[in-house]
């Protein structure tokens, strides 16, 4: 029996009232296999024990956030995580309306009122997320990112793995980028917040009919860390003028702008590093291209 059929059997065994007319198997996820059922429901099956624990934390947080966050987010309707067995444990939720807010979609929008509205929606989402008191969060094992240690580790790994493929001028620029940031203690004096962790165009949904943000997905990278990191995702996808529009709703953006630009400046090489460390040639070539 194929894996997708085994997954479907576990879904039907747990929820026999669910009538399945069609399904699509998506296997490219790093931590989860995905079944799309009836073009309506998404079911995620963790591939590894660590992924199972991560999904448990994500589900707890999504249930906690549903009464706090105004934008639509996944609402867990199906839950078999108690199985605690890889291949059987899963969660499921209804697909949200809209399509990923790709950069090319964004660039086609020229109306100032629409751009302001989109910026306000995204800034309000992040403000609501980042302002949640950490002491109230339900997940006791939520990762706390040590920003200094993480940045130093990334820099060390990039130096060892990526630098041999880079031109000399690019190596100097990247070294300066990291070393200036690491040398400034103020960059690490922020109070950790709950951050989305992967706040980019593939996880922001857009309704072309309503010309508005219709939802946010993929909360698997949530953790406690720097609020600037989420805005770096926006900067990478939509550029500085758009992120500056967020300041009217989230004025602290202006105060940590330097951290935003630092993180944004690491994203391409992070992709290259991921490609090298995970034997993903496409990711490596995409990330390293500007540095050769």
Q: What labels would you give this structure?
A:
292 residues, alpha+beta, Phosphorylase Kinase, domain 1, Aminoglycoside 3'-phosphotransferase, Chain: A, domain 2, 2 domains, 5-stranded antiparallel β-sheet, 3-stranded antiparallel β-sheet, 12 helices, 14% strand, 6'-aminoglycoside N-acetyltransferase
Average pLDDT number: 94
Q: Approximately how much beta-strand content do the residues carry? A: 5-15%
Secondary-structure arrangement, i.e. CATH architecture of the largest domain:
Alpha-Beta Complex
Task: Give the strand tally.
Answer: 10
Which CATH class of the largest domain applies here?
A: Alpha Beta
Q: Please trace the helix and strand order, writing H or E for each element.
A: HEEEHEEEHHHHEEEEHHHHHH
Assigned CATH superfamily of the largest domain: Aminoglycoside phosphotransferase (APH), C-terminal lobe
| Number of continuous helical runs | 12
Pfam families: APH
Organism: Dictyobacter formicarum
Protein name: 6'-aminoglycoside N-acetyltransferase
Domain Aminoglycoside phosphotransferase: 24-250
Overview of the molecule:
The chain folds into two domains: 92 residues, Phosphorylase Kinase, domain 1; 193 residues, Aminoglycoside 3'-phosphotransferase, Chain: A, domain 2 (Alpha-Beta Complex). By secondary structure, the protein is an alpha+beta fold. The protein has a five-stranded antiparallel beta sheet. A three-stranded antiparallel beta sheet has the order 6-8-9, with helices on one face. The mean pLDDT is 94. α5 runs antiparallel to α6, α5 crosses α11 and α7 crosses α10. β8 and β9 form a beta hairpin. Helix content is 45%, strand content 14%. The longest helix has 19 residues.
């Amino acid at each position: 029996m194929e894996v997708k059929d085994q997954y479907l059997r576990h879904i039907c065994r747990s929820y026999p009232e669910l009538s399945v007319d069609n399904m699509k198997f998506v296997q490219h996820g790093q931590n989860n296999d995905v079944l799309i059922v009836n073009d309506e429901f998404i079911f995620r099956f963790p591939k590894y024990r660590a992924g199972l624990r991560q999904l448990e934390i994500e589900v707890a947080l999504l249930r906690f956030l549903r009464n706090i966050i105004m934008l639509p987010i996944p609402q867990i309707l199906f839950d078999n995580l108690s199985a605690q067995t890889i291949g059987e444990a899963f969660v499921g939720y209804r697909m949200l309306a809209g399509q990923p807010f790709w950069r090319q979609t964004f660039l086609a929008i020229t109306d100032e009122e629409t751009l302001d509205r989109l910026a306000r929606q995204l800034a309000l989402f992040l403000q609501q997320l980042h302002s949640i008191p950490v002491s109230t969060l339900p997940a006791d094992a939520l990762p706390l990112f040590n920003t200094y240690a993480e940045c130093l580790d990334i820099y060390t790994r990039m130096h060892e793995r990526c630098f041999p493929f880079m031109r000399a001028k690019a190596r100097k620029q990247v070294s300066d980028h990291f070393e200036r940031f690491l040398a400034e203690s103020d960059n690490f004096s922020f109070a950790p917040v709950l951050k989305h962790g992967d706040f980019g165009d593939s996880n922001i949904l857009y309704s072309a009919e309503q010309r508005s943000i219709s939802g946010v997905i993929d909360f698997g990278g949530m953790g406690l860390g720097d609020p600037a990191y989420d805005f770096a995702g926006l900067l990478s996808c939509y550029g500085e003028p758009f992120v500056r529009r967020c300041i009217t709703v989230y004025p602290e953006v202006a105060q940590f702008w330097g951290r935003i630009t630092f993180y944004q400046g690491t994203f391409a090489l992070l992709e290259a590093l991921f490609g090298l460390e995970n034997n993903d040639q496409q990711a490596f070539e995409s990330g390293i291209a500007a540095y050769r």
